[in-house]
């Protein structure tokens, strides 16, 4: 199935979940347009024209000049009432009086009338969930909220985790990291619903300099304090081993063997532990007025080896290229760990160069455990087969670390 067909199929299923019977959802001639077009559906716009303009503007930062021109052209078309002539693919949503929909729920939860724009996402990632913009009808101003909906056990757990993380995240004056705040968290028809303050991703982006990135990484690592512990005596090591012990399958067996080797060789290594965002990637961050916008906090956790976010940023950027060799990128994560961990070269949470490879292998083990627990391979994720790229890098890293530590 093509990416377009995947997105349309997933969008149809999600729309019927969020506008349930007696509401009716049908593709074809309707009042809600798909942008930027039928061949590349990315967002289902609301029926309200002004809110559609707002939704398109807030869709996200557009990096290329060609993409900016397309977005500007579509916005102009919507403002002029020519959207239907330009965006030919549409969806009809009929809502009888008194019917409950995600829009009626959000209107009550946020204390004001809202309409919704729904993102169209490709299939193939177990952790994907419906994401919406809540918009003011008749207004082309910024969204009222960004909304995430947990639709199954995994995505519901992630939505709940993000709500909890943002509720306890320190927000000191002058902080570099700028995270959304929770406007509402609740349950609707058995679905977890989280509404967040919108971060201004639609505004012109500021450069994310290495110094800004490093400052944000250190700030997140210290969010709940840091401490140094022997690996074998750390709560993190015990929790990781317990999680991996509960995983089924041959890949999990290989991961357990790799962890046993790490524990045997480096259990006495003393390393720094702190917090991590959990999915600190270029597409979950953006520069803004001297600070760093950071969203998607659903994987935030404390008491993990300092440096995980820095390694994740480097590795995920590398494997985001479909032409990249994931196994080579994972091996490079271990080989080049010292460079990635440069933001932590000094201070109480510093990572010693001799421990950089160990921290990188722990990160790869953490990522492999996450993918296995989330059943990414079963969902058809491109990088779901951790035995093909993450676990081999653990073995290579163990050899390199043995040479480093003697």
Q: What keyword list fits this structure?
A:
406 residues, alpha+beta, Aminoglycoside 3'-phosphotransferase, Chain: A, domain 2, 2 domains, 15 strands, 17% strand, disordered C terminus
What features would you describe in this structure?
This protein is an alpha+beta fold and 406 residues long. The chain has 2 domains: 3-196, no CATH class; 210-405, Aminoglycoside phosphotransferase (APH), C-terminal lobe (Aminoglycoside 3'-phosphotransferase, Chain: A, domain 2, Alpha-Beta Complex). It is 42% helix and 17% strand. The protein contains 14 helices and 15 strands. A 9-stranded antiparallel β-sheet has the order 1-4-2-3-5-6-7-10-9. It has a 3-stranded mixed β-sheet with strand order 8-14-13. α13 runs antiparallel to α14 (390-405). The chain is globular, with a radius of gyration of 23 Å. The model is unreliable at 401-406 (pLDDT under 50).
Offer a concise description of the structure.
42% of the residues lie in helices and 17% in strands. The protein has 406 residues and is α+β, with helices and mostly antiparallel strands. The longest helix is centred in the last third of the chain and has 19 residues, at 356-374.
